[in-house]
């Protein structure tokens, strides 16, 4: 009974009106999320994080995504520019928040040496985290010697970082308010403490929110390079087409010139033929005028 009533309501009001998916059959419909079709909708990335954007205001339909992919295989038009525009919007909001958070930190007075150490420690933490990822990748590929060399480099940087942290601690001990110094993550805008343990930093860098913004930033860079290459190919094609136009005009002028030359040649031939006929007629006329019969008359 409930199913029948639901079906009746769908027929009268549409499935979207009662919480279902709208009856859309074309992926080009403006209500369809183009970012979802292209494989990466930001609204889905940050679910249950501090950057949770809530549900996407457009429709996600898996079947239409497959239809879009099939259309691309046949040479159909893509939505990459619209996709790039959407991603840039999210990155722009994140960058704005990064500047705001950094501005708040910059307003806090601090010793120059403290500030320098903070930046150095932050850079070392990022470098160590990057090398650790490389070590994992090399290990999965079976490149043991390369992985060990990279791990040794990470250990050396960890020693340097510990030394700088000890120096910073000596400068800030005694209840100094800088003891809990913060910095801003340049990927996701989160605050990080320079005294966070490697484990805590690793949790941040591998967290859903940080990886989500990192994924979007990488995708934006990839799309910008792809579309720039595509635009360059289009310009080259237009230039080649434009360069070929003068040759076509030259060929047309040559053909017109040849036709005019042929017409002139035909006119000269006709003129000579007519002249010859007139001369022949005159000779015949003179011969007739000299005949004995005409003289006797």
Automatic annotation (TrEMBL):
GO terms for molecular function: mRNA binding. It comes from Clydaea vesicula. Pfam families: LUC7. This is Splicing factor. Belongs to the Luc7 family. The lineage of its organism: Eukaryota, Fungi, Fungi incertae sedis, Chytridiomycota, Chytridiomycota incertae sedis. GO terms for cellular component: U1 snRNP. GO terms for biological process: mRNA splice site recognition. Residues 226-272 are annotated as: Disordered. The gene is LUC7_1.
């Amino acid at each position: 009974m409930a199913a029948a009533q639901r079906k009746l309501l769908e027929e009268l009001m549409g499935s979207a009106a009662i919480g279902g998916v709208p009856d859309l059959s074309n992926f080009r419909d403006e209500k369809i999320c183009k970012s979802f079709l292209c494989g990466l909708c930001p609204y889905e990335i940050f679910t249950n994080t501090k950057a949770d954007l809530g549900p996407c205001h457009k429709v996600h339909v898996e079947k239409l995504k497959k239809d879009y992919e099939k259309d691309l295989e046949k040479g159909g038009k893509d939505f990459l520019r619209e996709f790039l525009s959407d991603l840039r919007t999210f990155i722009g909001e994140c960058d704005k928040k990064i500047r705001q958070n950094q501005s708040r930190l910059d307003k806090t007075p601090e010793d120059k040496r403290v500030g320098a150490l903070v930046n150095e420690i932050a850079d070392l933490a990022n470098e160590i985290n990057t090398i650790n990822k490389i070590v994992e990748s090399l290990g999965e590929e079976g490149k043991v010697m390369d992985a060990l060399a990279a791990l040794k480099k990470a250990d050396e940087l960890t020693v340097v970082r510990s030394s700088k942290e000890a120096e910073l601690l000596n400068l800030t001990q005694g209840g100094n308010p800088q003891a809990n110094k913060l910095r801003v993550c340049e990927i996701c805008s989160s605050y990080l403490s320079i005294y966070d343990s490697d484990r805590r930093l690793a949790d941040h860098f591998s967290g859903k929110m940080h990886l989500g913004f990192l994924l979007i930033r990488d995708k934006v860079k990839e799309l910008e390079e792809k579309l720039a290459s595509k635009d360059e190919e289009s310009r080259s094609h237009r230039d080649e087409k434009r360069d070929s136009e003068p040759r076509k005009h030259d060929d047309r002028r040559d053909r017109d010139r040849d036709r005019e030359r042929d017409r002139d040649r035909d006119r000269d031939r006709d003129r000579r033929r007519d002249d010859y006929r007139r001369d022949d007629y005159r000779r015949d006329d003179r011969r007739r005028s000299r005949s004995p019969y005409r003289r006797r008359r």
